[in-house]
């Protein structure tokens, strides 16, 4: 065990308290407050981050469980000066209102588009084999774990669809 974790490309020591959630480690120990604490029960998706390319709810896992892992937060996807394609699309399509869920939505969408590119089927997929497509139905199904209290879902789907079409 290396007792380190890579967050947005930077190495950090794991917290000394093994009970620290990944979410609390990111927010309190590293000061990466883009990842939000919504429900703290894994039901809203506000805390979604990407671990080794897979999206997870950071409130449901302990930081100590990610020794040696690569974590990407919203801060690691883009900056105000150089936003990611999804961050730009969310702005252009007004894919947020209050913005609280937006970091989790964008992290989830980033990993979701990679799932589709990897041809991983979802419950909405027409087939378990072959090339997957980022249809509206696929996007809605795959993003169903990320809630938006403001109801910006149509704009979120439009933003993700635009990026999916550009990268296809």
From TrEMBL:
Source species, domain of life: Bacteria
Any one Gene Ontology cellular component term annotated for this protein: periplasmic space
Comp. bias intervals (Polar residues): 1-14
Keyword Disulfide bond: no
PROSITE patterns: 2FE2S_FER_1, 2FE2S_FER_2
Coiled coil: none
Entry-linked InterPro entries: 2Fe-2S-bd (IPR002888), 2Fe-2S-bd_dom_sf (IPR036884), 2Fe-2S_ferredoxin-like_sf (IPR036010), 2Fe-2S_ferredoxin-type (IPR001041), 2Fe2S_fd_BS (IPR006058), Aldehyde_Oxdr_Iron-Sulfur (IPR052914), Beta-grasp_dom_sf (IPR012675)
UniProt keyword list: 2Fe-2S, Iron, Iron-sulfur, Metal-binding, Oxidoreductase
Entry GO MF terms: 2 iron, 2 sulfur cluster binding; metal ion binding; oxidoreductase activity, acting on the aldehyde or oxo group of donors
Signal peptide boundaries: none
Chain ranges of the 2Fe-2S ferredoxin-type domain: 1-77
Residues covered by region (Disordered): 1-20
PANTHER family to which the protein is assigned, alphabetical: ALDEHYDE OXIDOREDUCTASE IRON-SULFUR-BINDING SUBUNIT PAOA, OXIDOREDUCTASE, IRON-SULPHUR BINDING SUBUNIT-RELATED-RELATED
Protein name: 2Fe-2S iron-sulfur cluster binding domain-containing protein
Organism: Qipengyuania aquimaris
Organism placement in taxonomy: Bacteria, Pseudomonadati, Pseudomonadota, Alphaproteobacteria, Sphingomonadales
